[in-house]
Every structure is written in structure tokens, then in C-alpha cells.
């Protein structure tokens, strides 16, 4: 696998929130991490990014052990992260946000911004507008575009559709599908489990900090036990 995390165990204040969790994703693949509130989904993603200190576990990127690298060094290795909250600079314009995202890609800023405008047409229309004035869905598109400015190999999304309408959720998921076509490995934590699995190649379901189920997206969608427990019937 291009990006893998094995036997991740850790938490806060000495209490384990995740225990022996394993995830992996290949280039050109969308993998969702799902589960009820408090299952440890976002904690697992923070662990993979290096924000959470692990008691145990190993993380590999393209055959390289990055377990002991700091967060900023993992980003330099090709990982980009879009947190659920505070993921844009609200006082800057849309274009300035994209420029801020290009700190590792200084030689190619203008062409990369144009690429983002092609991928996210609505933010081109709003490029001179202060990002804090945008709708929730538009802000999320700016946040994802800013993360892509570094030309990442792995894109990690934490609840990309949180707080948006069903129509905007569909738009964001379509953007995620478009990004997949760039041969990027996409790892996504998502509360809208059914919709996430519809676009995912594979998924993991966490329960109380542990891997409970995993499999192809269509398998998890169609398993009666999983549908009843996690997908609303």
C-alpha cells in the first residue's frame, strides 16, 4: 500500500482513544473512516498526521517509515490535511488563501492556482472576496483547494461535509471524486457514512477506538448487519 498505518494506539492524558487501529490507502483510491460519535475517527487521523503522540504503531508512506517524523516533516513528504474546523484564513481573500497553501510549491504558484480554479469554478468567481464571507460549502472548497496547492500524494479530509446541506454535500463528494482522478490517495473521516461509502473504494468502521469492520465500499453498504448498526437500516 502507498500509505499505511498499523496497530495505532494512543490518546490523551494517558487514556487510549484508539487501540491497534490499522488503515491503508493506495494512490487513486478513496478510503473512508466511519463510525459513531466518539469512535476515535478524527483521533486516528491526527495520529497519522503526527498531531497525536502514539504509544504504539507504525506509519509508512511509499515504503518509508515516517512514524517518528514531526507533522511539518510529514507534510513535506507529501501529506496534506484539511481539518474540520478553522481550515481557512477568514480575513484573507480566496486567492490569498491559495497562495498561503503554496508554501512548499513556490515555483509554480500561478499555474497551480489556475488549476484549482478549474477544479473549483465557484472559488474562481469569489477569488477576490474575503474567505470569511463565503458560505460553508464554498469555504470547504477553498480549504480543500488550499490543501492541494502543495501537490500532495496523500490528502486527508476530516469531516469534509460537516454542516452543509445535502446538495452541497453531493457537490463536495463530486470534487473528491475529481481529485481521485489525479492519482492522489484520499483518506476521509466522514459522518455521512452511506454517502461516503457510495464514492469510496474501501472503508473502515471504528467502534470504541478499534477496527470493527473493513471492506470495499459496496460490501459495507450492502451488508445487512452493518446497514442496521451504522447506516440507518
Mean pLDDT: 93
User: Mind telling me the C-alpha Rg?
Assistant: 17 Å
> What is the SS-derived class?
alpha/beta
Helix count from the secondary structure assignment: 10
Shape: globular
Provide structural commentary.
A hairpin with a 2-residue loop joins β9 and β10. The chain has helices at 41-49, 71-76, 94-100, 109-119, 121-125, 136-148, 166-180, 193-199, 217-222, 224-230; strands at residues 3-12, 15-25, 30-34, 54-61, 64-65, 79-82, 154-158, 185-189, 202-207, 210-216. The chain is 37% helix and 27% strand. It is α/β, with parallel strands linked by helices. It folds into 2 domains: 3-78 and 152-230, P-loop containing nucleotide triphosphate hydrolases (Rossmann fold, 3-Layer(aba) Sandwich); 91-147, no CATH class. α3 (94-100) packs parallel to α6. Strands 6-7-8-3-9-10 form a 6-stranded mixed beta sheet, sandwiched between helices. Strands 2-1-4-5 form a 4-stranded antiparallel beta sheet, covered by helices on one side.
Secondary structure: elements and pairs:
Layout: E1 3-12, E2 15-25, E3 30-34, H1 41-49, E4 54-61, E5 64-65, H2 71-76, E6 79-82, H3 94-100, H4 109-119, H5 121-125, H6 136-148, E7 154-158, H7 166-180, E8 185-189, H8 193-199, E9 202-207, E10 210-216, H9 217-222, H10 224-230
Parallel strand pairs: 3-8, 3-9, 6-7, 7-8
Antiparallel strand pairs: 1-2, 1-4, 4-5, 9-10
Amino acid at each position: 500500500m502507498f500509505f499505511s498505518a498499523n496497530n495505532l494506539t494512543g490518546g490523551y492524558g494517558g487514556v487510549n482513544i484508539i487501540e491497534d487501529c490499522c488503515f491503508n490507502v493506495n494512490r487513486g483510491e478513496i478510503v473512508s473512516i466511519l463510525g459513531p460519535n466518539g469512535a476515535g475517527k478524527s483521533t486516528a487521523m491526527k495520529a497519522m498526521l503526527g498531531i497525536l503522540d502514539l504509544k504504539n504503531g507504525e506509519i509508512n508512506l511509499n515504503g518509508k517509515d515516517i512514524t517518528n517524523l514531526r507533522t511539518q516533516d510529514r507534510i513535506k513528504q507529501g501529506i496534506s490535511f484539511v481539518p474540520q474546523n478553522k481550515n481557512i484564513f477568514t480575513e484573507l481573500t480566496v486567492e490569498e488563501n491559495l497562495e498561503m497553501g503554496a508554501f512548499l510549491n513556490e515555483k509554480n504558484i500561478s499555474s497551480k492556482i489556475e488549476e484549482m480554479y478549474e477544479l473549483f469554478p465557484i472559488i474562481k468567481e469569489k477569488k477576490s472576496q474575503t474567505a470569511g464571507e463565503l458560505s460553508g460549502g464554498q469555504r470547504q472548497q477553498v480549504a480543500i483547494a488550499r490543501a492541494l496547492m502543495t501537490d500532495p500524494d496523500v490528502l486527508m479530509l476530516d469531516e469534509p461535509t460537516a454542516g452543509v446541506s445535502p446538495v452541497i454535500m453531493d457537490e463536495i463528494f463530486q470534487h473528491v471524486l475529481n481529485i481521485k482522478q489525479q492519482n492522489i490517495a484520499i483518506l476521509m473521516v466522514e459522518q455521512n457514512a452511506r454517502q461516503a461509502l457510495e464514492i469510496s473504494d474501501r472503508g473502515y468502521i471504528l467502534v470504541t477506538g478499534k477496527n470493527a469492520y473493513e471492506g470495499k465500499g459496496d460490501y459495507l453498504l450492502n451488508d445487512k448487519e452493518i446497514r442496521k448498526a451504522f447506516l440507518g437500516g
